[in-house]
């Protein structure tokens, strides 16, 4: 059974940085696209970044481009989200998710059958 565990969230001032990690177990992590999603109170869940199994292709939501970087280490079964220049509107619960897609970069949460428990990111002064 696939298990995903996020870590690295917290409270940070505007302009600050955080690095989220997601450790996977129980599945063939290295074969599938991984994604980072977020959900703010009263808003729909949205995909902020995704990365193919090799790391060769990535997707970013427009509002996080040039600020967030997704990466993965298949030897460690871990995917990361480096978040720089954080803004108050980045405040949300962040989730990592594993797809069953090998080469694509799906944006819809429906394409990701496995989810972590989420980690809170709060950007405030």
Describe, in plain words, how this protein is organized in 3D.
The chain is an all-beta fold. 0% of the residues lie in helices and 46% in strands. It has strands spanning 3-7, 10-12, 18-25, 34-39, 46-51, 58-60, 68-73, 78-83, 92-98, 114-115, 119-123. The strands form 2 sheets. Strands 2, 4, 5, 6, 9, 10 and 11 form a 7-stranded mixed sheet that branches. The protein is globular, with a radius of gyration of 13 Å.
State the order of secondary-structure elements, H for helix, E for strand.
EEEEEEEEEEE
Give the amount of beta strand, in percent. over 45%
Largest sheet: 7 strands, mixed
Low-confidence stretches are: none
Q: Provide the structure class.
A: mainly beta
The Cα radius of gyration reads 13 Å
Roughly how many Å apart are the termini?
40 Å
Q: Strand tally, please?
A: 11
Mean pLDDT: 95
Helix content: under 10%
The number of helices is 0
CA-based shape: globular
Brief rundown of the structure:
Helices cover 0% and strands 46% of the residues. It is built from no helices and eleven strands.
